[in-house]
Amino acid sequence: QVQFVESGGGLAQSGGSLRLSCKAPRMIFSTFVGQDLGWYRQAPGEQREFVASSENGLTHYADSVKGRFTISRDNSRKTLYLYMNDLKPEDTAVYYCNNVRTPASWGQGTQVTVSS
Asked: CA Rg, the chain, in Å?
């Protein structure tokens, strides 16, 4: 059963910004609060890769996005966010969110396309 629903993707120009959202509509509040959550992405022909995570109050980032992307969460809304700034064409991918420790079924993701 899909636990997370991603949205907010779209087309951006190089240097632009987007904000992605990941909601957990079926998850109760107390469960969401305790989740270590992460953003992942998969470019065409590539394997899914880690982007950023929010784990026990700490954040972690892939080197490729460090300084450009910011992960945050609003537990009251059961929502995880990814703020993406200074976008580059190599950021083009389908973006997913999931539990870092025990991944659930993957959602449909949200497509991000960055033009040069």
From this structure: 13
